[in-house]
Amino acid sequence: MKILLTVSIFLLFNNILFSQTFVDIEANSNSNTTYNPDREYYANNNLYLEGSFVIQSINFETKLYRSESNLFQLNGRFGLGYFYLDFFGVQQSTGGLAGLTILLGRKNNHFETSLGGFVGSDNGAFAWPIATLGYKYQKPEGRFIFRSNIGTLGIGIGLGYAF
To answer: Which domains does the chain have, with CATH numbers?
Structure first.
């Protein structure tokens, strides 16, 4: 499992780093075309379904800050989810989640990291930390979102809509 995690993170970083490098080189090599981040428009809000081995949720995410170059973005998110964990006793609960997400990258491909928590009640209230590293695909001016991540809740995949 450690080898799979290491290889996945390595491939994710390579994809992000090299895809952006070639885009920048191509934009700089053609004198008629220059990269203009002001022409990129990303939707400010996202609504998506996400699932992992431990939690299934519906989330709303909104932009809190975006750099002028569109390379860095900070989002806030909250959602509702169903939590199931069979670890030293089964915990099943519905509850809420909230967190902050950092996106790095331009164009379609983004590195994503999140930090937050899930609060639910199963024979008393409990909280579970959420920390993820992942990939997000969203075209500028596009509406479709694909997310994949790995973190404290296992491996997760999400599909959503940007508006």
So the answer is: 2-162 (2.40.160)
Question: How many other CB atoms sit within 10 Å of the CB of residue 38?
Answer: 8
* H helix runs in 30-120, sequence order: none
CA distance 162 to 145: 7
What is the C-alpha separation between 38 and 122, in angstroms, rounded?
48
Tell me the per-residue pLDDT of 55-109, one tens digit each, with 9 for 90 and over.
999 999 999 999 998 899 999 999 999 988 877 776 788 999 999 999 999 889 9
* Cβ atoms of 148 and 134 closer than 8 Å: yes
Compute the C-alpha angle 62/63/64, nearest 5°: 115
What pTM was estimated for this model as a whole?
Answer: 0.71
